[in-house]
Amino acid sequence: MSFQNPVFIPGPTNMPESLRKACDMPTLDHRSSIFAEMLYPALNGVRRILKSDVAEVFIFPSTGTGGWETAITNTLSPGDTVLMARNGMFSHRWIDMCERHGLDVQIIDVAWGEGIPADRFEEALTADKGHKIKAVLATHNETATGVKSDIAAVRNAMDAASHPALLLVDGVSSIASMDFRFDEWGVDIAVTGSQKGFMLPAGLAITAFSPKATATIEAAKLPRTFFDIRDMRAGYEKGAYPYTPAVGLMNGLKQSCDMLLDEGLENVFARHTRLATGVRAAAGAWGMPLCAASPDVYSDTVSAVRTPEGFNATDIVTHCADTYGMAFGVGLGDVAGKVFRIGHLGMLTDAMVLSGLATVEMAMVDLGLDVKLGSGVAAAQEIYRNTASTDLKKAA
Question: Any residues with CB less than 8 A from the CB of 30 and at least 6 apart, and which?
Fold first, then answer.
């Protein structure tokens, strides 16, 4: 693997040099006022990226998985029932976490490649006359399959059923790359991480709680210590943490939020859509369908590309790494060996994406697939040549 080449995994993503430098800083006293000058702007920046006026943001030294645990342990008790669709590896993992914590998970199984079925959620919630279901968990962007789900539709289903459950959303591979509307969609807890749309190293679990969610924390009885938002809130009141924070990452997060907001959120989202459209055009030119079942669920941050029946898609990823020094994502879970994944989120440009598509084409031809060199690149070039581009400001 070459450090000179960009990566095309769905995270961690490529880091702008300015953010890498922001994280690389001397040791400082994390209980001094200097840390507070990083902390408060970072919290406010995340809130703005979530398009929220009401969210209370808590940032833990962890990853998205720690964010999942923060969400459930601060709001739920052993034996509580939660409702969730299983439509990919990451929804499956959140279900597994809930079950390990002693929650009763009501699972709606969905074909991998489909989005969350809001109509089936509405049926389940309407049938729950006693309001046994305490939370609805939803994966906004299923990283394993390249599928986005309609969170607004999930909230509408909850409202149609007049159900008081909390809405907990995994936005790990969507937030800061795809439009996310915390307040408008009635989200109660959003979870993401530093290593995807925020373009930083892994190491921060970023969570946001609505007033409704924070109102449940005293009654919640699942065990929590490290992820207790009450301790974190008390620390924030003093401009500090209840334990040692990841100071460099917090400085990077402050800078990342500034960078994204300077570019303009709508420009950020349009850039990701544009890059994704080029990748999808390339897959079409190769004659390879996406795992995502229909255009309305296509992800703008990762595309899972299906290879011909009988071909091991993982060989493409391995060959790209071993021969050309470039990283792509393998298929996971039910689609392992059936798809390879192209991450197109974070710090990427047209030219960078074209280099990835060219490399994949070389690997596929090397491995004997019936793909014409340059076909996918040309299809993406037509997209990028004929649509307006927005620059990731201050990325150098």
Answer: 240, 241, 244, 245, 247
Q: Which of 54, 74, 47 is nearest to 192 (CA)?
A: 47
Question: In the sheet that 133-139 helps form, which strands lie side by side, from edge to edge?
Answer: 56-61, 204-209, 189-193, 166-170, 133-139, 81-86, 104-109
- Please give the span between the terminal C-alpha atoms of the chain, in angstroms, as a whole number: 22
pTM of the model: 0.95
Q: The CATH number of 17-262 is which of 3.40.190.10, 3.40.30.10, 3.40.50.2300, 3.40.640.10?
A: 3.40.640.10
User: Does the pLDDT of residue 392 top 70, yes or no?
Assistant: no
| Every domain range in the chain assigned CATH 3.40.640.10 | 17-262
Q: Class for domain 265-385, per CATH?
A: alpha beta
Please tell me the distance from the alpha carbon of residue 138 to that of residue 362, in angstroms, as a whole number: 37
Q: Where in the chain is the domain with CATH 3.90.1150.10?
A: 265-385
Residue with token string 């440009």:
349
Q: What is the pLDDT of residues 339-381, one digit of tens each?
A: 999 999 999 999 999 999 999 999 999 999 999 999 999 999 9
Q: Where are the alpha helices (DSSP H) in the chain?
A: 17-23, 33-49, 64-73, 89-100, 118-127, 151-160, 211-214, 229-236, 247-263, 265-286, 314-324, 350-366, 375-385
